[in-house]
């Protein structure tokens, strides 16, 4: 499995610099961040990192308190820690905690941090699992701490086989994977899965549809796979239809608020999953396909972009957008982002409807490609 590094630092800028350094020198590592000690403990429980990079100044506790709690918890007692600390305090902690592997006096140079991470990870096996593999929950968490795209990236990078379940209402949304490849998403909530599907089912026998509905409510087998197995679905590309409906289903997660999830690894997949062709997409392209199904009326008011706001690329946003399979409008929009023009001006210049521009902003924000500054923020005194 990919190694995981948790950065606990109250400075967003410092955390991003650290993440950038790790991404450059340790490709394939999963990087989590937390700005408070309490947040860090929860992420350690959820993700089981291989290394913690700890800043000594946090808003809720000092380094001594964090190290003491890590040492006292069996789940984290053996997790190595690299501490970044003021030089005057370094002697007070060095050697006092078994899991404190390096103490780096501030200001910490990139070279010193890189050497410390290399020394710890270079002597460690790849990421351990708290729960047994080949039949069990590999990781779990919620989207308040681990974004959807990171959960998918963890499952793909570790080439997992099984199901990633997102709890949405009474019935979870289940994303099936085989060897790290995305198969399809489904649910036992038949009405949610098949909303908007009357046209594609118009030539199908009603009795068979009802049978498939009951079966999906019991087994979560997508209706289209059930019908195709019984020669009751007159469409050639059943896999494409099933995949597209799964991405439309998955799109509901982006507007659902905080959602809990878990990945259950399996040595054998259910019959209706086993022979389904895996997609070659990476997590970001798979998520982009799902985000294209989000409609403005689904987006809560607090998440809707301000038409008078301005999009700007994040630190890695321009690099990320180059790897996406964008449609023609998205390509033009990505090329028009300059960090200063308001969204309405961009839409007008490109000749695209404002609604389309708003939805592209929502997609790009969800993929962490852009930051979006609302007009109220841009008008504050002293704002750039």
Question: How would you sum up this structure, described in words?
Answer:
This protein has 384 residues and is an alpha/beta fold. The protein has three domains: 4-121, Response regulator (Rossmann fold, 3-Layer(aba) Sandwich); 136-291, no CATH class; 296-378. It has 17 helices and twelve strands. The strands form three sheets. It has a five-stranded parallel beta sheet, sandwiched between helices. A five-stranded antiparallel beta sheet has the order 6-10-7-8-9. The two termini are 43 Å apart. Mean pLDDT is 85; it is low at 124-134 and 377-384.
List keywords for this structure.
single chain, 384 residues, globular, 5-stranded parallel β-sheet, Rossmann fold, 17 helices, alpha/beta, disordered C terminus, 12 strands
SSE diagram, text form:
Elements: E1 4-8, H1 12-25, E2 30-34, H2 37-47, E3 51-55, H3 63-72, E4 81-85, H4 87-93, E5 100-105, H5 110-121, E6 136-142, H6 148-157, E7 162-166, E8 173-178, E9 181-186, H7 190-193, H8 206-219, H9 223-229, H10 238-250, E10 260-265, H11 271-274, H12 283-291, E11 310-313, H13 317-321, H14 328-336, H15 343-350, H16 354-366, E12 370-373, H17 375-378
Parallel strand pairs: 1-2, 1-3, 3-4, 4-5
Antiparallel strand pairs: 6-10, 7-8, 7-10, 8-9, 11-12
Helix pairs in contact: 8-9, 10-12, 15-16
């Amino acid at each position: 499995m990919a190694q995981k590094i948790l950065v606990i630092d109250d400075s967003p800028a410092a955390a991003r610099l650290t993440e950038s350094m790790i991404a450059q020198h340790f490709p394939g590592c999963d990087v989590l961040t937390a700005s408070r000690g309490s947040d860090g403990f929860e992420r350690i429980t959820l993700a089981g990192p291989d290394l913690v990079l700890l800043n000594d100044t946090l808003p809720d506790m000092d380094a001594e308190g964090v190290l003491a709690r890590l040492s006292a918890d069996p789940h984290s007692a053996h997790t190595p820690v690299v501490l970044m600390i003021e030089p005057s305090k370094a002697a007070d902690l060095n050697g006092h905690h078994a899991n404190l592997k390096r103490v780096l006096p501030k200001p910490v140079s990139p070279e010193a941090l890189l050497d410390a991470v290399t020394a710890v990870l270079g002597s460690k096996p790849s990421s351990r699992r708290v729960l047994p593999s080949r039949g069990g929950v590999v990781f779990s968490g919620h989207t308040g701490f681990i974004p959807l795209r990171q959960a998918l990236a963890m499952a793909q990078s570790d080439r997992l086989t099984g199901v990633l379940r997102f709890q949405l209402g009474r019935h979870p949304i289940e994303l099936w994977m085989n060897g790290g490849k995305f198969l399809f998403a489904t649910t036992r909530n038949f009405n949610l899965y098949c909303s908007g599907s009357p046209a594609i089912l118009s030539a199908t026998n009603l009795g068979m549809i009802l049978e498939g509905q009951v079966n999906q409510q019991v087994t979560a087998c997508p209706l289209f796979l059930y019908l195709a197995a019984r020669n009751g679905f007159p469409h050639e590309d059943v896999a494409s239809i099933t995949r597209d409906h799964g991405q439309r289903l998955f799109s509901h997660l982006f507007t659902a608020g905080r959602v809990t999830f878990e990945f259950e690894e399996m040595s054998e997949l259910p019959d209706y999953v086993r022979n389904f062709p895996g997609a070659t997409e990476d997590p970001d392209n798979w998520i982009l396909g799902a985000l294209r199904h989000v409609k403005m009326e689904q987006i809560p008011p607090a998440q809707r972009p301000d038409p008078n706001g301005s999009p700007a690329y994040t630190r890695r946003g321009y690099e990320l957008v180059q790897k996406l399979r964008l449609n023609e409008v998205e390509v033009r929009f990505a090329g028009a982002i300059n960090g200063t023009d308001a969204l309405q001006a961009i839409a007008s210049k490109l000749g695209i409807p404002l609604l389309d521009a708003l939805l592209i902003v929502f997609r790009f924000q969800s993929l962490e490609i852009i930051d979006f500054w609302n007009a109220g923020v841009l008008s504050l005194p002293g704002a750039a």
